[in-house]
Amino acid sequence: MSEKENRPILEVSNLCMDFYGTGARKSCVHAVDHVSFAVRKGETFGLVGESGCGKTTTGRCIIRLYQPTSGEMYYDGKPIHGKLTREKRKYITDHIAMVFQDPIASLNPRMTVQDIIGEGLKLRGVKDKEERHRIVKGLLVRVGLTPEHATRYPHEFSGGQRQRIGIARALAVNPGMIIADEPVSALDVSVQAQVINLLNELKEDLGLTILFIAHNLSVVKYFSDRIGVMYYGKLLEVADADQLFQRPAHPYTRALLSAVPQPDPYLERKRKKIIYDPSVHQYGPGNEPSYHTIEEGHILYCSDREFEELMKSQEGKKV
Amino acid sequence: MGETMIQVKDLRVNFRAWAGTVQAVRGVNFELKKGETLAIVGESGSGKSVTTKAILGILPSNARITSGEILYNGKDLTKLKEKEFYDIRGKHISLVFQDPLSALNPIQKVGKQICEALKKNEHMSNGEAKKRAIALMEDVGIPEPETKFSQYPFQFSGGMRQRIVIAIALACNPEILICDEPTTALDVTIQSRILDKIKELKAEHDLSVIFITHDLGVVAGIADRVCVMYAGKIVEYGTVDDIFYEPAHPYTWALLSSMPDLDTKEKLFSIPGAPPNMMYPPKGDAFAPRNRYAMEIDFEQEPPFFKVSDTHYAATWLLHPKAPKVELPEVLKHRIQRMKEEREGA
């Protein structure tokens, strides 16, 4: 982490994304509900949660694949929310790139690898074909493939190799930040480690900031500097990776951590599982939840009353 | 351990494919004892699902069992006719599939799907079957079974659907339950609940379980014994403690050290390359090209099983008395060290 500073490079505040259904009822899903967090330069920020908790939607809102309902987002101090003008889109896509979950569906089967990776360069004014191919070959080597792969089609590659192509495509525009949406969950166990190691190397060499979205807690813990836990569209807790795992404050985080299977038969036998019951909170008028800071860098979404209780119990432990 | 429930002897399964013959399972031997949970671990394409499909006689039509036997109650399951399987499937051996949505009929109420097996196998009347189905649903932890009885699969969440599939599997009181990656499609919290349920039901109904998965964390929690499969063969088997605390085969090392656990800080050990094409299985040890400990003999000759302890065997030339001593991968060495300390400290 060469350039790690405390300055946030991405700030998200009160991001909301509602999806409206069609039909008579016009039902509405609050996929992302007032989510605020900041990602520092050069760090890996992990977002975890169950499926359907809004972690992918958050990532897609940031890169503006979805148009968020409300909220503010800043990349490097400049706003990236609001009406998506041509300049704003260029600013976003110049600086943020995305790696998708499904390495099969995210690559166009009728384009060669060099066209897939070079497309972003072409749109950014690298008009000379030779020049473009030269850059693409460099990128292929960078992600652990060979230059000969450039003229092949996606179906000729295995899952891990395809994910490498996806990463090369993201790197093509020289972004400052990568949003990696479950980059390893579609891969086989033995190949996952290859991709995780590659992302780690790239991050150190290029000083990338990574927003890592995944549901596998062991992988997120291994890969991330800080972690945010999401549940039903809300961001419940943000903390340093180690701190979150040692001192989880939110009951849901505790339940989630207690459910992670560990490759250790002894631990598994004596493990106690915690089941999260959302009704313990009893939020209502006069007991509204909001973001509280427990200590430097550890943020919890809870009501004032819960926060007071938590602080009391923590002080009790210290004494 | 009790009597042997199923014994698989030198099972070989080939698939006829457009480009040639795929040797999916190449000589698998194992036995399932009464009341134990046997986990079969391996990457996709290692032949673990095909093995269990052969046990139940539900291999696709282009597959052929070329040799070997599967002994159950003195009968060889590979020789049975489709009709004779009707008496075994569901009543004696049943299966929980990976994807609960595609295992259920989307246009039939779930209650009816549970009753179907009861009516067919146990010749129950509608009323009896319904009563039993509701009891089963309660058993697997579905709240308000009376209302849920007449709902359709799409009205259930993933975890609840998997519970229904388990209820169907348990409907006729089988002795053996085969779980083919039952939690892969589920979230961690739901996964841990389903695993607890399977453990609970296993104790209640005195089941023997074959559990197929690629997640070693899950294996540590549920299994008594573990078989590790690679390229259609079992490469190592032993009790769960043998496999996690004293793994002996380089492929098991690689699998264990390519997954981070919550304390891993070191660089992960990644397995280079990709699994072999089973149309042309390699000569010698199939894992040799990806194995950094491979010796010359690995490319020439298939290793036999070497005994590590009474319960623990591994097929690798590294255990040959003349083989050089090798160091475990860094990540794994530290993890085992840490696990031992934790055990002794507690």
Molecular structure report:
The complex is a heterodimer of chains A (319) and B (346). Chain A has 11 helices and 12 strands. By secondary structure, chain A is α/β, with parallel strands linked by helices. In chain A, strand 9 (226-231) and strand 10 form a beta hairpin. The mean pLDDT of chain A is 87. By secondary structure, chain B is α/β, with parallel strands linked by helices. Among the domains of chain B are: 101-171, no CATH class; 246-345, no CATH class. In chain B, the strands form 2 sheets. In chain B, strands 6-7-8-3-9-10-12-11 form an 8-stranded mixed β-sheet, sandwiched between helices. Chain B has a 4-stranded antiparallel β-sheet with strand order 2-1-4-5, covered by helices on one side. In chain B, helix 4 (110-122) runs parallel beside helix 7 (158-170) and helix 7 (158-170) runs parallel beside helix 8. The radius of gyration of chain B is 21 Å and the shape is globular. The two termini of chain B are 28 Å apart. The mean pLDDT of chain B is 89. At the A-B interface, helix 6, helix 7, helix 9 and helix 10 of A face helix 8, helix 9, helix 10, helix 11 and helix 13 of B.
Write the topology of this structure.
The complex is a heterodimer of chains A (about 325) and B (about 350).
Chain A: E1 8-20, E2 28-40, E3 44-48, H1 55-62, E4 70-75, E5 78-79, H2 86-95, E6 96-99, H3 113-123, H4 129-142, H5 159-171, E7 177-181, H6 189-206, E8 209-213, H7 217-223, E9 226-231, E10 234-240, H8 241-246, H9 251-258, H10 265-270, E11 289-295, E12 298-303, H11 304-318
Parallel strand pairs in A: 3-8, 3-9, 6-7, 7-8
Antiparallel strand pairs in A: 1-2, 1-4, 4-5, 9-10, 10-12, 11-12
Helix pairs in contact in A: 3-4, 3-5, 4-5, 5-6
Chain B: E1 4-17, E2 20-33, E3 37-41, H1 48-56, E4 63-72, E5 75-76, H2 82-85, E6 93-96, H3 100-103, H4 110-122, H5 126-139, H6 145-149, H7 158-170, E7 176-180, H8 188-205, E8 208-213, H9 216-222, E9 225-230, E10 233-239, H10 240-245, H11 250-258, H12 296-300, E11 306-309, E12 312-314, H13 330-345
